[in-house]
Backbone:
């Protein structure tokens, strides 16, 4: 009887350990942040989205990000309305996403504390148009936390976002995008 109890106990420990490992992979942050900044002659425009979902698979180096376009908020409500209705057509194209991988993943050690940089390559979909994207990601590992930050530029014409001539001096042709995530291991 004691042998059966010991076997059941060992089996339970194995199941719990495997479940814990599977639960860690991939790591997901449901409260990531994405911002964009447009610097134009007439005005600067900035928006922030605090409900960005980011995932990283530490076994394979795969990255994924998805966000609702309507999650971007502006200082001026009229800007937000024009962004969603006229430029990003967020009812027709409700999400933006990135799917990719860390290029030099085999050279990195995510179990080591500290900061390092890695190149992410993949495809960025905005406004229903998918384009290749290469960007550097700054990783910081402290305790059981991994933070990831990146910054890159996007040409709005590359994603078929049309700006009326009347407001062409209000919106930059290239906008700066920043994203940050915090993962728990």
Residues:
């Amino acid at each position: 009887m004691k042998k059966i109890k010991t076997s059941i106990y060992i089996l339970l420990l194995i199941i719990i350990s495997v479940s814990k490992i599977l639960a860690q992979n991939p790591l997901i942050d449901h409260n990531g942040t994405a911002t964009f900044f447009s610097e134009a002659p007439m005005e600067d425009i900035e928006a922030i989205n605090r409900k960005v979902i980011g995932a990283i698979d530490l076994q394979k180096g795969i990255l994924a990000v998805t966000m609702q376009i309507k999650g971007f908020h502006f200082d001026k409500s009229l800007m937000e309305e024009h962004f969603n209705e006229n430029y990003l057509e967020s009812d027709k194209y409700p999400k933006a996403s990135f799917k990719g991988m860390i290029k030099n993943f085999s050279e990195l050690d995510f179990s080591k504390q500290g900061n390092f940089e890695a190149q992410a390559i993949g495809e960025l979909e905005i406004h229903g148009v998918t384009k290749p994207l290469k960007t550097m990601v700054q990783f910081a590992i402290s305790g059981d936390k991994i933070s990831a930050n990146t910054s890159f530029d996007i040409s709005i014409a590359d994603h078929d976002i049309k700006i009326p001539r009347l407001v062409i001096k209000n919106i930059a042709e290239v906008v700066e995008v920043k994203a940050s995530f915090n993962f728990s291991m």
